[in-house]
Write a structure and sequence with these properties.
Number of strands: 7
CATH class: Alpha Beta
Order of helices and strands: EEHEHEHEHEHE
Structural class: alpha/beta
Largest sheet: 7 strands, mixed
Radius of gyration: 14 Å
Distance between the termini: 29 Å
Number of domains: 1
Length: 154
């Protein structure tokens, strides 16, 4: 459940593709994720992600070079300031930041990330997994999920 938002809430009405990835990824997954991000950018698809792990940050970097909408899901309360690279896309109405937390939640933990990931999966129309570690929290979360899931790299 989304508790707070900052930005263009009209983006929630779009078809949204959730992108999640384990913190530790195989080398083969990295290039597939980059190619996927470029494809989403070129097709003007709205991507929702936490953009927290290094690979997710790299995906955000590729997406920000386009004009498509982006939804950033936080595993904490809303931030006070935008990162410099988000200011222009935010002003263009391309960015929405969502969180399941109040502002007083200021630290990201495994538990807050899990709740954020559940929120993203619920909000998304499609789910894409860059890579999921076999024993990771993401694999456990997805085991009980019913929406179709596309894996870029197994």
């Amino acid at each position: 459940m989304i508790t707070e938002t900052f930005g263009n809430t009209e983006l929630l009405k779009l078809n949204k593709i959730a992108f999640l990835c384990s913190r530790k990824v195989s080398a083969g997954a990295v290039l597939k994720c980059y190619d996927w991000a470029i494809n989403q950018r070129e097709n003007d698809n709205c991507v929702i992600s936490g953009f927290h792990s290094q690979l997710e940050k790299d995906v955000l970097h590729y997406l920000l070079k386009g004009t498509q909408p982006i939804i950033i899901a936080l595993a904490r309360g809303l931030k006070r300031n935008l990162e410099p690279e988000l200011i222009k896309p935010f002003e263009q109405g391309r960015i929405l930041i969502i969180t399941p937390y109040e502002k007083n939640v200021t630290r990201v933990t495994e538990q807050t990330a899990l709740i954020r990931n559940k929120m993203m999966l619920d909000v998304a129309d499609q789910i894409v997994i860059g890579f999921a570690s076999k024993e990771g929290q993401l694999t456990t979360l997805l085991a009980d999920f019913t929406k179709p899931i596309k894996y870029l790299c197994l």
